[in-house]
Amino acid sequence: MRLLTRYLVLQDGLSDFVGRAISWLVLGLIGVLMLEIVARYFLNSPTIWAHETSTMLYGAFCILAGTYTLRHRGHVRSEVIYGALNTRWKALMDTIIFAMGLVVLAVFLDMAIDFAAHSWEVREYSNKSIWQPPIYPIKTVIPVAVGLLLLQNIAEFLRAFFTLLGVRYEDPRALEFGEDVDLEMLDPAGDAEQGTKA
User: pTM of the full predicted structure?
Assistant: First the structure.
């Protein structure tokens, strides 16, 4: 199962890289908004581009953050039922959920590619302000974000599926979590629990 572990390391690394890279968009967003505040309220000369630029930066940040959030299991999940289940049942639920996610994300990716391609074909511009910036570059972020989320979803599906089958593998994510996480879910062989006791 070294191949699986290597794949998980690469995929988790990609998602972490994307998360760190897009975190800089927040500084850009803050900078644009601060500039607009100064220009509008202190210089009495509001910009025509700050509102749409901040919207685009925030939109790109939100959709690209999905893969990083999934990699760190940060999406909302109800623990009322899930938390009461044993490892095998959790793995079964995760396998079903991530299998459904594969189908949904594959369809969404196809739609997002068409959506962005059409925007490039017509050289789409915004009609929200007199600035009228091109929006086909920002629409290209949508299929990129969906593709990245699909890749991470595949990694999560493989984790759940092999855990469900009881296959022993070394999950690189197991070392990152604290005691509040069910280590059996991360390590079906039980090695992680023995390691914490040693």
Answer: 0.81
